[in-house]
Design a protein that fits this description.
- The structure holds two protein chains of two kinds.
- By secondary structure, chain A is mostly beta strands.
- Chain A has strands spanning 5-7, 10-13, 19-24, 31-38, 42-50, 53-56, 65-71, 74-79, 88-95, 102-103, 107-111.
- Chain A has no helices and eleven strands.
- In chain A, β9 (88-95) and β10 form a beta hairpin.
- The N and C termini of chain A lie far apart (36 Å).
- Chain B has no helices and nine strands.
- Chain B has a five-stranded mixed β-sheet with strand order 1-9-8-3-4, with no helix packed on it.
- Classes of the chains: A mainly beta, B mainly beta.
- At the A-B interface, β4, β5, β9 and β10 of A face β4 of B.
Chain lengths: 112, 112
């Protein structure tokens, strides 16, 4: 079975540029989560969706971050404009209500 | 969610059983024990979870003490590929419709 698929795996861009991260959840999963991992702060939840609807976005750092889930098989996390402090590994995870979360392999983002 | 305490690091010889302990003395009756691991440069991987009975799957066994204040994850025949950070997480839901909170975990190093 295909797991959670994230793209790109690596992204290097200059400060001020727009960055779009993509996630394809496991088919049939109705929950989707976006996390960010850094050495200093560990793994932090940014936002999660249920049936394509954002449920809790209290972890989104600021207005520069936005996330969408236009359908059950695709979600995006966008940063505009990007800043060096946004450099991190961004993970997407999905699950159903009675199953554990399954994570993708992440996008390693470097903002120069 | 109850707080967990894990050793910072452990070593294990290849082919031997790896026993990873976790203390969760403030666990409530309706809280489950989850184990995840994170191999370098990969996303967190679900291993196993349980409420009060011991559990076994193709990856590992989970032993929960009768008072539920501690548990042990057992990898029966550790391989080099099991080198990872292992996280013990205690949470109310059997489902996953809330964020996972990862602590510092145990760095397991399997030695040849």
């Amino acid at each position: 079975d295909a797991g959670v698929i994230q793209s790109p795996r690596h992204e290097v861009t200059e400060m001020g540029q727009e960055v779009t991260l993509r996630c394809k959840p496991i088919s049939g999963h109705d929950y989707l989560f976006w996390y960010r991992q850094t050495m200093m702060r560990g793994l932090e939840l940014l936002i999660y969706f249920n049936n394509n609807v954002p449920i809790d976005d209290s972890g989104m750092p600021e207005d520069r971050f936005s996330a969408k889930m236009p359908n059950a098989s695709f979600s995006t996390l966008k940063i505009q404009p990007s800043e060096p402090r946004d450099s991190a590994v961004y993970f997407c995870a999905s699950c159903t209500s009675n199953q554990p979360q399954h994570f993708g392999d992440g996008t390693r983002l470097s903002i120069l | 969610d109850a707080k967990t305490t894990q050793p910072t690091s452990m070593d294990c010889a290849e082919g031997r059983a790896a026993n990873l302990p976790c203390n969760h003395s403030t666990i409530s009756g309706n809280e489950y024990v989850y184990w995840y691991r994170q191999i370098h440069s990969q996303g967190p991987q679900y291993i196993i979870h349980g409420l009060k009975n011991n559990e076994t799957n193709e990856m590992a066994s989970l032993i929960i003490t009768e008072d539920r204040k501690s548990s042990t994850l057992i990898l029966p025949h550790a391989t080099l590929r099991d080198t990872a950070v292992y996280y013990c997480i205690v949470r109310v839901d059997p489902g996953s419709a809330r964020q996972l909170t990862f602590g510092s975990g145990t760095q397991l190093t399997v030695l040849p």
